[in-house]
């Protein structure tokens, strides 16, 4: 069973200060890196970093990847403590899939505007308005919402998930309106109700901007990493024909790195949160990777600072807990998705 962690002494801890944008006061230098490794070893902790983390956090992590890929690593690791450098719902998913482990998030204030766009109370009311409807929720949702969900989905498998459900059943799709519109168009079903939620970062990847950047770079391929809400508008826009579908590649992290390795040179426009560029540039330095919008940065992801990570490892905070009944129900909705297949296009 998970247990509350005792604090560990660290010579850098006194430098950590709190502020409106999160924990700060620590430089990501060699001393910090050595101290992070020492504390992680003492805690028997594994450090997981989402692709949208700042480069310093990605580089110190044991594993970098998308949210579901990291949750699977969390479930398989022998480490007793998982430090999840990402946003809160992702750390919750790791806890749901690894209930016996201690899961820490370096700053529990790192939320997600998409996950926050529907609460369990709102979903309960919505279900009451549509008795008998099946609930399909994108993985960017809280554990409480997943617990009220019939099947979860990712951007990669949302169409397959909806197609697997009886055609005569109403579907309540939440929370991302762009992914919902894409699924409605692709499945041709008219009995899908779509929640009007969105990720605030998606605004940086608007239709006109995507079209303009594609026009300015006629030779460039377009990579869309679908595992976070900010890319869902790009998926929708690509489906609308705003960009030549031949140039559009929907790729998971691993597939993106493989594709970049095969491609070797040229220009690639990346339609997702800008943190992804770090892994790509490391994997294929000859390719000119350009952000569709270099302001498409998730401020929640960037709350996981060097100071926050040091504080979490030293003090054993902030622990993420999900009540057992909520975790069991949420796990069932994730497992139903995995049974349908293609949960994240592979790692
Ligand atoms: S990029 Fe959007 S969907 Fe992803 S964590 Fe940030 S707010 Fe949430």
UniProtKB/TrEMBL annotation:
It catalyses: iminosuccinate + dihydroxyacetone phosphate = quinolinate + phosphate + 2 H2O + H(+). Its cofactor is [4Fe-4S] cluster. It is found in: Cytoplasm. [4Fe-4S] cluster binds at residues 112, 199, 298. One of its GO terms (molecular function) is 4 iron, 4 sulfur cluster binding. Coiled coil: none annotated. It comes from the Bacteria. Pathway: Cofactor biosynthesis; NAD(+) biosynthesis; quinolinate from iminoaspartate: step 1/1. GO terms for biological process: 'de novo' NAD+ biosynthetic process from L-aspartate. Signal peptide: none annotated. Iminosuccinate binds at residues 50, 67, 138-140, 155, 225-227, 253. InterPro entries: NadA, NadA_sf, Quinolinate_synth_type2. Its EC number is 2.5.1.72. Its main location: cytoplasm. GO terms for cellular component: cytosol. Binds 1 [4Fe-4S] cluster per subunit. Keywords: 4Fe-4S, Cytoplasm, Iron, Iron-sulfur, Metal-binding, Pyridine nucleotide biosynthesis, Transferase. Catalyzes the condensation of iminoaspartate with dihydroxyacetone phosphate to form quinolinate. Belongs to the quinolinate synthase family. Type 2 subfamily. This is Quinolinate synthase.
């Amino acid at each position: 069973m998970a247990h509350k962690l005792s604090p560990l002494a660290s010579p850098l801890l006194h430098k950590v200060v709190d502020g409106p944008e999160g924990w700060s006061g620590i430089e990501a230098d060699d001393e910090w890196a050595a101290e992070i490794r020492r504390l992680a070893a003492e805690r028997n902790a594994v450090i997981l970093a989402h692709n949208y983390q700042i480069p310093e956090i990605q580089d110190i992590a044991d594993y970098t990847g998308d949210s579901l890929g990291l949750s699977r690593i969390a479930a398989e690791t022998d480490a007793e403590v998982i430090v999840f450098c990402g946003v809160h719902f992702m750390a919750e998913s790791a806890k749901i899939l690894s209930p016996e482990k201690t899961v820490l998030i370096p700053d529990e204030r790192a939320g997600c505007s998409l996950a926050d766009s529907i609460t369990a109370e709102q979903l309960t009311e919505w279900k009451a308005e549509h008795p008998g409807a099946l609930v399909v929720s994108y993985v960017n949702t809280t554990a409480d919402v997943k617990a009220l969900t019939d099947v979860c989905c990712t951007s990669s498998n949302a169409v397959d998930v909806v197609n697997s459900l009886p055609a005569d059943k109403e579907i309540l799709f939440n929370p991302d309106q762009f992914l919902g519109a894409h699924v409605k168009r692709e499945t041709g079903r008219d009995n899908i109700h779509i929640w009007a939620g969105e990720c605030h970062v998606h605004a940086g990847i608007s239709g006109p901007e995507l079209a303009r950047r594609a026009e300015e770079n006629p030779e460039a391929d377009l990579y869309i990493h679908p595992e976070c809400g900010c890319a869902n508008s790009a998926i929708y826009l690509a489906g609308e024909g705003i960009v030549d579908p031949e140039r559009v590649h929907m790729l998971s992290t691993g597939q993106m790195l493989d594709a970049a390795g095969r491609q070797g040179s040229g220009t690639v426009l990346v339609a997702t949160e800008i943190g992804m560029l770090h892994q790509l540039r490391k994997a294929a330095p000859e390719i000119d990777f350009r952000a569709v919008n270099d302001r498409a940065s998730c401020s929640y992801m960037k709350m996981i600072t060097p100071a926050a990570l040091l504080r979490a490892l030293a003090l054993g905070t902030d622990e993420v807990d999900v009540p057992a009944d909520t975790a069991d129900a949420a796990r069932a909705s994730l497992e139903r998705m995995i049974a349908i297949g293609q949960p994240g296009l592979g790692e």
